[in-house]
Amino acid sequence: MDTPATLAAAQLGLDHEVVTYQRVRSIQEGAAAQGIAVADIVKTLVVRRGESDYVYVLVPGDREIDWPKLRAHLGVRRLSLPDAAEAKEATGYE
To answer: CA torsion, points 66, 92, 23, 82, in degrees to nearest 10?
Structure first.
């Protein structure tokens, strides 16, 4: 499967494994589908920092974003989550 992430990993010589499974509706279902604990999942969230300015935020599966800490870390006063269509347009990923 060629995606920007798998191509970058291959180019850097990183060992990686692509795991695929049926669409799930929750992180609990995703963990069960992979046979792992929710805490072992890393959620990749797209956060809008500004107009046409996005960052990926990696969050352990059993945790939530601490918005005040993230804003302070990024040095911004406002962050938001784009809707699914905007996130896909910005990143190429669903």
So the answer is: 40
